[in-house]
Design a protein that fits this description.
about 210 residues; alpha+beta; 2 domains; 5-stranded antiparallel β-sheet
Length: about 210
């Protein structure tokens, strides 16, 4: 079936002729209406969505910048915390050298005994006493009695003084081993210390409850 031919030229001429018959004011109103319609469509369908997208991206950019700033702040804080942890670790290691834990006490006492042997002294008595629980440490007294010359005793006491551990010597007394002898019998009390353990805390708590 053949479609009828359309005379586009005559149609266009007819449209132009009708448009010319419209008053100028009406034509201007139509043009303005078309401009407003196209402009409104552009604003509604193109401009506003793009502006909303720009606003959203600007907010995301602000958030990202804020996160970057916070990240730098936390990075500095983390670096400071790591340095503080390293310092505390060194302080703790130093404290352990001064105040040993419970497991190191036997070797510490053996070291003190060896210092006496190295100083040419003979141990007549080496008796650890009852431990005393204090604030954050435990006091360990050891009663000692040594035989040897005066200078050897002084050498032994000086060696103890130079130890890294905290070791105090009290109640020192000397007497000749025999009348007119240069060999002395030296009695003293050696007090050393260790960190208080959880077992010590439980023991201390039980003692306080028992006293009540």
């Amino acid at each position: 079936m053949k479609l009828p031919d359309i005379n586009w030229r005559s149609g266009a001429d007819s449209f132009v002729e009708k448009a010319q018959k419209i008053k100028k004011a009406h034509r201007l109103a139509i043009v303005i209406g078309l401009v407003v319609l196209l402009g409104g469509s552009f604003v509604w369908f193109v401009y506003l969505p793009r502006m909303q997208e720009i606003d959203r991206m600007e907010k995301e950019l602000v958030d990202l910048r804020q996160k970057v700033r916070m990240g730098k702040v936390w990075e500095k804080k983390l670096t400071g915390l790591r340095e503080e942890m390293a310092r505390l670790k060194k302080d703790f290691e130093k404290a352990l050298r001064i105040l040993p834990n419970e497991r190191e006490i036997p070797s510490l006492l053996a070291g003190i005994s060896q210092l006496g042997v190295d100083s040419n002294l003979q141990f007549r008595l080496f008796s650890p006493g009852a431990e005393e629980i204090c604030n954050f440490y435990v006091k360990i007294p050891v009663s000692m009695e040594l035989g040897g010359r005066f200078r050897d005793v002084i050498l032994f006491l000086d060696k103890i003084r130079r130890m890294e551990r905290i070791v105090n010597i009290t109640d020192i007394s000397m007497r000749p081993g025999k009348p007119l002898s240069v060999d002395l019998i030296t009695a003293c009390k050696v007090i050393t210390y260790r960190f208080k353990s959880k077992a010590d805390e439980a023991k201390e708590k039980a003692q306080k409850q028992k006293k009540k």
